[in-house]
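Quick review question:
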């Protein structure tokens, strides 16, 4: 579930979009920039940008499952052959974040 955002600035210049931009500027963007990847996606990442991030992470199927005026419900799935790569990715990330339960 993500805040409903368009891929372009003009799609987000409505009252809800303005509120989301304000909140993400002070909460989401600093958090995203503090992470190793540093994408800074907090400032209203639209569905297109999120799709590319999921694809890069190894997910082969991505779709909008549902929406409300405030949220997008997105579904991402790994293809049968891609599960091993995703598992390696999660294990590598868990080692960096020191999640012992995932490393086992």
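Suggested answer, residue by residue:
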């Amino acid at each position: 579930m993500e805040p409903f955002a368009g891929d372009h600035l003009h799609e987000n210049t409505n009252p809800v979009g303005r509120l989301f931009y304000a909140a993400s500027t002070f909460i989401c963007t600093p958090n995203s920039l503090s992470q190793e990847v540093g994408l800074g996606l907090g400032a209203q990442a639209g569905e297109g940008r999120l799709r590319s991030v999921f694809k890069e992470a190894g997910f082969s199927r991505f779709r909008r499952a549902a929406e409300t005026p405030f949220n997008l419900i997105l579904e991402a799935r790994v293809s049968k052959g891609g599960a091993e790569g995703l598992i390696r990715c999660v294990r590598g990330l868990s080692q960096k974040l020191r999640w012992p339960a995932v490393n086992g």
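Why it works: The chain has four helices and three strands. The chain has one domain: 2-103.
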